[in-house]
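Here is one chain, start to finish.
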Amino acid sequence: MLDSLGRRSFLASAGGAALGASALGKGVAAAEPGQARHGKRRAPFREDRHEPDFCVVGGGMAGVCAALAAARHGAKVVLIQDRPVLGGNASSECRMHICGADRHKLPHLRETGILEELRLENAHRNPNSHYSIWDLILYEKVRFEPNITLLLNCSCLDAEMKGRRIQSVRAWQLTTQKWHTIRAALFADCSGDAILAPLTGAEFRIGHEARSEYNESIAPEIADRRTMGMTCLFQAREYATPQPFEPPPWIYRFDREEDLPYGAKGHRWLQMGYWWIELGGEDDSIADTESVRDELLKITLGVWDHIKNRGDHGADNWALEWIQFLPGKRESRRYVGDHVLTQNDIEAEGRFDDVVAYGGWSMDDHHSAGFRAVKLGAPATIFHPAPSPYGIPYRSLYSRNVANLMFAGRCISATHVALSSTRVMGTCSVMGQAVGTAAALACAKGIEPRGVNTHMRQLQQMLQDDDCYLPWKKHEFTGLTMRAALTASQGDPEPVRDGVERQIGTDPHAWIAHPGDVLMYTFPAETAVNEATLVLDSAMDKDITLSLHHATPDAVRIPAVMPKTFRVEGLSGGAWETIRRVENNRQRLVRVPVKRTLGGIRFVLEETWGAADSRVYAFHLA
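Its structure:
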């Protein structure tokens, strides 16, 4: 049957057999509580069946971007998330800021596409930087996308295989006590822990590769199963009066600065907690998560006790207001794809023909001992240099041996060393958008993920159309855009169709506009125009990332350089008329439906959000 949003959702009949094996066994029929058949009591849980084109497992930033990208390109999507909120480590449950290629300070390297859309929406609606509002924005974008069925509080527990293909997955929804079976053409694992690997037989790895395997100078001499650990953060607030802290008896006690990573210098992020409260790399980073969490809580409160009661740290008026109970994880399983991204790929800038995403974070390789590395005389992490940007190939985003399995996030096909850079959420987000776009393309063509390699230029163009930056790949525009006469009221307008939609080095690749300025295409004869697309100024040289650092009013706002009000006008019958006047704009990528025959089309900037000028990175037509 069709639900209220027109999506296909099939409820198993009382006599229908469930698909695949499960924790309750094979062939369990969906039934109402208390029903029986042939004198035997049946399982008391109902089952919903879904038949989308594409199923995404995991609703962190990679999964959110994958689901949205695929749905917006026409695929029917089911997104399974085992938590009540979306965003993963970026959600209110973990409150980690989204790091990426800009490293919070490298200008013009911030990830765009869907992630930039989400960040800018957050800047408008969440200026006081509350993580629960960010949760709401992610929920709203996904829940009200017509092509997505969102299943929250839903854990994937089983998969049915047919040869080398996944036929369906089965998930348990805790809140409704209901099974969901999702049968799809394609699947993407964005779960972080690569849950589909043990369920499907997909090849995967855990831990360090030996240095000799990929000739990685950072890798250890001997392979092992050690990983980077997980962290529990805290959030503190300063009050007007002293705030005492009485430590619980079960926590650890740290009397000396030397007992802590980075000593006294490690306390500079008092408000948001410390990433170096990290454990789990020497344990099983999946099976031991609960016991590691217990240890992390003892350490976290022990560090807070040290700050409050073991010396003067300027924290007399500070009090805890939140502690992270869901550890933020860095590494567990990694899939094996057609290409395994390595340290050498990153250092060579990843100049792949099939580049579909990019990274730029340092190879930030955390010591597997985490918090306890200080006792070994070792640093908690080493930031090995990495270029920004470097390309990530499509061949690292689908399985080598399961034909219809894709993946994005920290479980991609990469060595441990390469993962130490690619694991950050800005990079995970653009990989997710690439996977979702590729999945929609594959579904439309009826091909498997590997088959998309023969349509790589089309995939890259689709990503660039959606404002995804691909290093060393120019965005190609239509003949309509390139043949039209392009003029401006002042300055050189040609950069708006040069195919590079951000500043590179000292070249802005943009037309600089002031309120009242006009950017205009004219045609030799009246021409059908379907759509006009603008890529506008969102302050790519600034940091607009949600963070506990920004937990004060007015910390994150719509960038002042963003065009606030502008018009798109068409030339018809010798006169210019307004096609659309955009007010209170807060997005970098703006598409304006035209669907008219015109002699010309122009952009008129009326006002910014406060700046004296603004950039237009692209203005192209279809």
